[in-house]
Design brief:
The protein has six helices and two strands, in the order αααααββα. By secondary structure, it is mainly α. It has a two-stranded antiparallel ribbon with strand order 1-2. A hairpin with a 6-residue loop joins strand 1 and strand 2. Helix 2 runs antiparallel to helix 3 and helix 3 runs antiparallel to helix 6.
Length: 123
């Protein structure tokens, strides 16, 4: 059976230092525009259309991560093409949030939809 001292030891490394000494804890600073563009460029260069579309949606909507990953195509492209504005219900607050999709995000979504429908299926 583990004691309280054993649990306290897990919070320190072998030298007796706290595990988070010198590390940034708490809220992280927001991404700067140069970081956003760097990520977008890398995703485009790698041909990661799905990841680029999700990343752009996250930036445009400013939604929490849990809300971004729960988005469905019907929320942003119900008729096969991306909407100019979308409305999503937040999980944490239960409130509806309406946000505008930039031209770049709409293009990324449509590129993803084209790539996803071009994949042949078996059967």
């Amino acid at each position: 059976m583990r004691t309280m001292e054993d649990k306290h030891d897990d919070l320190q490394d072998k030298n007796g230092q706290p595990w988070n000494k010198g590390k940034l804890v708490g809220p992280k600073p927001p991404l700067r525009p140069k970081h956003v563009w760097s990520i977008r460029t890398k995703l485009q260069a790698l041909g990661r259309t799905r990841d680029l579309a999700i990343f752009n949606l996250a930036i445009d909507s400013k939604l929490r991560g849990c809300d971004v990953v729960s988005l469905k195509v019907e929320h942003v492209a119900p008729h096969g093409y991306a909407l100019e504005r979308a409305t999503v219900c937040q999980q944490k607050t239960g409130r509806s949030v309406r946000f505008e999709l930039s031209e770049q995000t709409r293009q990324a979504i449509e590129d993803y939809l084209l790539a996803a429908t071009a994949i042949p299926t078996c059967g």
